[in-house]
Structure formats: structure tokens, C-alpha cells
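Sample intake sheet
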Amino acid sequence: MRKGFAALALAAGMIFGGLSAQAATLAIGESVDFEVDTSALGAFTINRYGMSCTDPALCGLGSDPGGTLLDQGNSLSVAGGTIRGGSDLFNLTFTGRFSDVDAFSAPVAGGAAVAAGQASVFLRITAVDQALNISGANISSYDLGVFRGVELSPVPLPAGGALLCGALAGLAFVRRKRA
């Protein structure tokens, strides 16, 4: 019984606690979120976004010995929003056109206006047609400079998941007690 509870506790810790890494490998269709602190900026316009794979363990050193952010001809999508997972600021696709890419910066056509008082801007990067190795994301404003994002932990399951696990554990305990 103790082994069962230990396994349940470990699984719950992994599911609900989330693990945050400074570099991520995303399978096709998977996403990672970054948060950029904009609380001290006032109103501004996002003119560019960028991302990189600079972690040597994930991406190698130099020209592609261990992996890249994006291979030639493949794409990723990036959504910028005022809430996590939102795309109210922009929703764009970037394709590596000329060679494998370890880092890039691309324009946000027409700019994306962010209102004064907006505490954070969120970026969601999604692997479109190849696995991605990513270790950083940023936004920039021609007037204010570049602002680096911080990778966020995966979104935990809703509280209903915790209640379901608790109920199943209670049923297992009652069943065990009767036996």
C-alpha cells in the first residue's frame, strides 16, 4: 500500500506541480509559454519578436552539432497576448527559409500596441511541422529596446483533477480496509 501511495504522490507532484526548465524540446503541436514583464513600460508598441536556442546541452555549440531551433523549410507559430495563451496582440508563423536557425528576430507587421498598465505580455510558441529546441524568447520596441521573456511552468490541471485523485485514493483506502 505504501508503494501505491508513493507512486500516486510522485505522479500528482509531476502533474500538478509542473516542472519549469530554462530550455524545452517541443514535439509537433506542443507549446511553451514565456512571460515578459512590461509593468514599468507604460504604453508601447511591439515591433519585433525573437527566439533562440542557446543551451549547449539542447542545441549544441556553433553550427548544428546537437540541434537547432528550427530547420530550413520548417515553421513555428508564435502568439502574443495580454493573457497567457492569448493572441490579441499578434498571431504569426515563422518559417526558416534559407538555412537552419539557432536564433532569429522577425517583425510584427504594423506593430502591436500594448496599453499602459499592462503588467505582462505572454508569448506562446508552438511547433508546427518539426520538433523545436527553444531556450529563450523576447519582444522588442523600437523606442524602448529588447525585453526577455521568462519560461512559465506548464499549466496545471484544474482543481477537479485533484478532487478526482483524492476520491480514487479514498476509494482505494476503503476497499483495502474492508479486505
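Comment: The chain has one domain: 25-152. The domain at 25-152 is CATH 2.60.120 (Jelly Rolls).
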